[in-house]
């Protein structure tokens, strides 16, 4: 014998049952009543919710021709394992990620040619000026760090990115509430109304970036976004002259999950912004299907300074196109204690003055 279907309350999630007196379905937990037709329609909607489908067609990159590959050398860092690429005129002596020496491996192999590149728009002089500005006004920055930081070793690196294009068809359902308050001579009343809100539509995503390097953290690179990808051009090896290029160690297929996370988050935020005039809005289900999902391989310009101070590694990154710079700074603990002591004293004095004034009043 087939099992009986159990209905869940759309309001609180509890199991609901038929009330013979009311001739309706009623939740014993929140006392919400439902018409049978309404509940059946809601259940049908749940069952017909399409499944998410976020698959991609990977056509990124192309094969290097022999002439291009012959003019590129690869270098590997024995410390962090980073592998970088440069032309024959580039003498790579230090790893841009950890600062340790690198050794030449030989000619380029085992990689695909990028589709696009954004050439560097800002030179090393601009990067050094941005870093000095980043230091300015930091009263708790240790003086010795400011003086000994190897600012001349800032390096221009083309970081590998996978760019994802797709159309997204989404169907999202929300549980929402409106609350009404009123009073009479004897009581105060609160009425909470529950709603099932659905949204459906399409969004177009172009050039959603996911970096292909494990040496650069996602948070750091996302902090210097966005890049203006309308300025990207077809890749030519000439753009590597005087710069380094990180050889990707996360391929396009391995980057799909990250791309899907970014697309899903952006889609859900865009649809949620259309659900207004409710006290609470809670997502119940989300279905996102991609259409014509394709991937491109691009090199994007980043200025890097990696330095070690007091046994801790500090990395600064600047967008080589827009100049946006980010990076953590150490704190002078002695200066912090003095600042904290002064702040505590100031707050204590203010509290004392306020108490004295209240006593006089």
Give an overview of the whole structure:
25% of the residues lie in helices and 35% in strands. It has helices spanning 36-47, 66-70, 124-135, 143-148, 218-223, 252-272, 333-360, and strands at 17-19, 24-26, 33-34, 72-77, 83-87, 102-107, 116-117, 155-183, 188-211, 233-234, 244-246, 280-309, 312-319, 325-327. Strands 4, 5, 6, 7, 8, 9, 10, 11, 12, 13 and 14 form an eleven-stranded mixed beta sheet that branches. Strands 1-2-3 form a three-stranded antiparallel beta sheet. The longest helix is centred in the C-terminal third of the chain and has 28 residues, at 333-360. The protein is elongated and about 90 Å long. Residues 334-343 have low confidence and may be disordered.
